[in-house]
Amino acid sequence: MYVLRLGHRPTRDKRVTTHVALVARAFGANGFVLEGVCDDSVYNSLTKASNMWGGAIHYECGVNGHEYVKSWKANGGEVVHLTMYGMPVDDAIGKLSSSPKPKLIVVGSQKVEAFYYMNADYNIAIGWQPHSEVAALALFLDRLFKGRELYTYYTDAKASIIPTRRGKRVEWRGQRK
Description:
177 residues, alpha/beta, Alpha/beta knot, six-stranded parallel beta sheet, two-stranded antiparallel sheet, transferase, tRNA_mtfrase_aTrm56, tRNA (cytidine(56)-2'-O)-methyltransferase activity
């Protein structure tokens, strides 16, 4: 499963796009794709998170979004566009979670072109009120993976959080940076 982020504007969207990428990584995506441009700050944040907390996520940038979607579908994958104009997530999540096809999750920033609505296999809404694409992606992935992604443990992590009722507890492996 990959997440395709549309319409990133580096001077304006740096934090939000970084959060979309971090949510994609933390909630089970295998790849993050930045349409149109490359932004080193997004890449650096993903790399830093993976180095510290383990796991890996494939990163691509500067791609043509239309061509990426067409190629994904041509190779047998499904395209899921998260939009407040879509069908309720609960109506589609059963079919999506039981499908073995690779999934490309599309999230926008500015106005999304009609191409993505027309070429998505699913236009999915996490409610019909304006909200963050970060929240939409997190809720969608949580529903898709039925909460299992919250318990992912990476053996290559340099640090792991130890759940505790109060305070912070981190277990460090190797040298602490």
